[in-house]
Structure formats: structure tokens, C-alpha cells
Amino acid sequence: MAAYPMLGQTTQSRETIEDNVFIDRASNGTARGRVLWTAPKYTLQLQHIVARADVDTLLAFYAANRALEVTVVWDGNGQTYTMMFDGAPKPEHIGGLEWRVTTKLVEV
Hints:
The structure is a single chain. The protein is mainly β. Helices cover 13% and strands 49% of the residues. The strands form two sheets. Strands 1, 2, 5, 6, 7, 8 and 9 form a seven-stranded mixed β-sheet that branches. The protein is elongated, with a radius of gyration of 18 Å.
């Protein structure tokens, strides 16, 4: 399994938790919960400020691993997650030699 490139993550990077809990109500109004997953799953939206060479590295990594599981170290807590890409990284030239790249990954 390939490791996501170690590029600095900006403070604009985000972690969200998806939890598949459904609450239904019986005809008398009593709540009943159903859980369809064994544990909550994470989604990471990583943002990097990098040079053009790093943009090319990340795009090449995506091309080689776009349908495969990759390991990602989340700077928010230092944990390593097994994830998959949820679409291509989005590079944006922000001026000079700097590029902002946003990547969305979902936990497997």
C-alpha cells in the first residue's frame, strides 16, 4: 500500500466523521436507533501550499493510486488512516511559485 506524499497540511485542512446511525420512531413515538457500520469513518480534506514540482508529484501519485487504498498521516492528530481518493486533487495557482492543492480522501 502506497503512502500519501508527506506534504505540509495547512490549517484549512479538515477532518469530518461519518457515522451511519439512523433513528426511526415507532407509531407511539419511541425512538429506535440502527447502526449499519461497525465504527465511524473519517473523511479528510487536505490542503497543501506547495511548489509546482510538488503539484506534479501529487498528481502522479493520484494517477498511480486513484482506485487503490493509500495510507495518510493526518496532521490533526498524528494518526495514520487507510483511505481512498474521492476525486482528483485540485491544484490552484495562488501566485509566484506557490500552488494550493486540495485533496479529498475517505477512510476505507
